[in-house]
Amino acid sequence: MDTTSAHEIIRLTISTILWASAPVLAVALIVGLVIAFVQALTQIQEMTLTFVPKIVAIFVVVIITLPFIFSRLTFLSNRVFDLIVSGGI
Question: Which residues cross the membrane (predicted)?
């Protein structure tokens, strides 16, 4: 394996991780900000109020974006397997 192949695999892996986790992280950030804003307005400092809606939102987003995540991971694995077959690794 030369440095170009290693660089390609690392680049693909990092971009796949970023793209696959971006929807979940964005929703967690938005829900967290909304909950913090509501808590600041109402001065309700209940700890379960911060976790339960965030967990539910993340679970729903994972279910909705599962085909997208699967396609990204499939693309990465196919690319790595193609490099292995071609003798790049």
Answer: 12-39, 51-70
